[in-house]
Amino acid sequence: MSDLKNKIDKGITEFYLNSDIDLIKKSLIDEGVNLESESAEITKFVKRLKFTQSAIKIKDSNKLLLDRIVEKFQDAINRNIDKPISTLMGMIESKEMQVQFRNLDKLTPEEIKEIIKGKNLVDLMDELDELDEE
Predict the structure, then answer these.
(1) Is 20 helix (H, G, I), strand (E, B) or coil?
(2) Rounded Cα gap, residues 3 and 85, in angstroms
(3) DSSP string, 22-43
(4) DSSP string, 40-78
(5) Against a cut of 0.70, is the pTM above it?
(6) Residue 83 · residue 131 · CB < 8 Å
(7) How far is CA 116 from the centre of its chain?
(8) What is the tally of structural domains in the chain?
(9) Which domain holds residue 101?
């Protein structure tokens, strides 16, 4: 019996998917659906979905950028490259964290992330790329 019910449900769904939009609207109105309020709710829901999707993309992008910046700083520390190290030291000093991070070679990725927190990641990445080119 459930197989028959599934076939009927599928048939009804396909009928509505392939039907004229006016016929669908009339059917919904006949069933007592307020199309204006439903349309407004759907519009709000779609906007919320788009915003959430955009926020997730930005968060993922920022995480990738943050990871690249951390790698660049760690590489600069390991290779003892002055300019990126001085940039990192400047950020440490501006946050008054000198005592906590005086041994740069022992910084963990999480500590570097803490140091660069609040900075514009794109600007910082551009600055590090420019230093690489010099």
Answers:
(1) coil
(2) 68
(3) HHHHHHHHHTT--HHHHHHHHH
(4) HHHHHHHHHHHHHHHHHHHHHHHHHHHHHHHHHHHHHHH
(5) no
(6) yes
(7) 18
(8) 1
(9) 53-133
Q: What amino acid is encoded at 45 in this protein?
A: F
Q: Work out the number of other CB atoms within 10 angstroms of the CB of residue 88.
A: 22
3-state secondary structure of 80: coil
Whether residue 120 is contained in a domain is answered as yes
103 DSSP 8-state letter: -
Q: Which two tokens stand for residue 82?
A: 């002055």
Closest by alpha carbon to 61, among 121, 109, 119? 121
pLDDT at position 128 over 80: yes
Classify 134 as helix, strand or coil: coil
Asked if residue 121 is part of any domain, the answer here is yes
Which class for 81: exposed (0-12), middle (13-18), buried (19 or more C-beta within 10 A)? middle
- The rounded Cα 16 to chain-centroid distance in angstroms is 36
Domain-embedded: residue 124: yes
Q: Tell me the per-residue pLDDT of 50-69, one tens digit each, with 9 for 90 and over.
A: 999 999 998 898 889 999 99
68, part of any domain: yes
